[in-house]
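Hello forum,

I keep getting stuck at the same step: I have a sequence, I want structure tokens, and every attempt I make locally crashes halfway through. Rather than fight my setup again tonight, could one of you with a working pipeline run this one for me? It's a single chain of 486 residues.
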Amino acid sequence: MSGRTEGGAKDRDAADNPLGPRSLAVALALTPLLPTPAFAHASDRGHVLLLPTGYYIAGGAFAVAVSFLVLALLPPAALDNFWRRRLPLFAFGDGLRTIVSLFSFAGFALLIAAGLFGSRDPLSNPLPLVIWTLLWAGFTLLQGVFGDLWSWLNPWYGPCRVAARIFRLRSNEAQPSRLPKWLGFWPAFILFSAFAWFELIDPAPDDPSRLALAAGAYWLVSVVAMLAFGYCGWSRHGEFLSVFFSMVARFAPVQREQGRLSLCWPGAKLLAAEPLPVSGTAFLLLTLSSVSFDGLSKTFFWLGLFGVNPLEFPGRSALIGIGSFGLVLTFVLFAAVFGLTVFVGQRLAGGGHSFRQAAGLLVWSIVPIALAYHIAHYLTVLLVDGQYALVALSDPFALGWNLFGTADRMVEAGIVAGAGSARWLWNLQAGVIIAGHVLAVLVAHGLAWRLHPQASRAALSQLPLTLLMIAYTMFGLWLLATPTAG
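Reply #2:
Ran it on my machine without issues. Output:
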């Protein structure tokens, strides 16, 4: 299909609008309140999987269980030597970081303008495609592979540096944090909750003008908070994208210390992490539970619980209450189960560590699982909507431009349709989920040895958490295979 999904600038021409401008404004204002299908934030699965999923689910659970048994028999010293291996690469400084961030800010401002004045079609306007597809779905994968790229590309660092020079403030790094310590990561937790609600529950998260206002307001609030509490203080505990991306970057095999790059094993940096406070633990659990609910909320099972016919999907506007309840419930249940497994594990192993310290340390093992679910869940979005993004970026204001030579590119939507595509997509997604859980078991064992130096106690403490990971592996594979609506 053609990448251009509407007729360019003429869709905004008043001459083509049978309603008057006042009637159109009223209609647009009332649209989110009407119980009609709204824009979806992602390209959903268009087929029902007919592969022998029971074998896959059993095999995935078996792989996670075997990895636990193997790790329980290995001596801690062997794994410690494995995690410590590094391959030095090269060194580079931060001289261009401000310039890169300023270019990122300029691009962000252009996207906001495109959202306000460009096409109304979310598949032709670059703003929703960049935010939901390239940034949220795609950039998370880059963070998990190449490390903390966001610290260079975020649209706040450069403007804050410029503001510091103009107003003769301390540099961003030298400025001490004025954020109260008792707040911890709760600001980021609250903001991520709002972000998840907007993405998953709001009737029209893809509406360009609506998204432009939300993104622009968030950028402005973040700048004010960084100037008030210090750039480092707010970016490390308040700005939820920076907090999330920095946590994901700890999984990356690319490591940068004191300006020098080196390669390490995926997840090695998680073993050196300090225990998170309760707020940080809650934040990490929320990132995983929100992605899981995104998949669960579209299943026939979930909709059937509330008497919704999945074959007559009523649209997101009619499911705001159900969705809000489910988003909160998923987080509460997952946090309760995780806390229970940590508590039982510590009781089995004994030792003098508090529950808060154990949970704050072991929660880092969630990062490989969260990254794996993110990749598996958004894979089809990247493959299809990523092509639309290439088209829209060449003509951001729907004026007939072709800045990058991709405006007339044909979008290959068939890449995720058909029996052949279903087979390779399923195998790839299932493999990513199983690999993520196996790596999580590996990381969890390394963290457990920090709490319990005796190998037998460390393995015993991980038994309940491993059972949870086996169950979550089965749940994740079921989500990929079960029919969905919407």
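The first helix runs from residue 21 to 30. If your local run keeps crashing, start a new thread with the error log.
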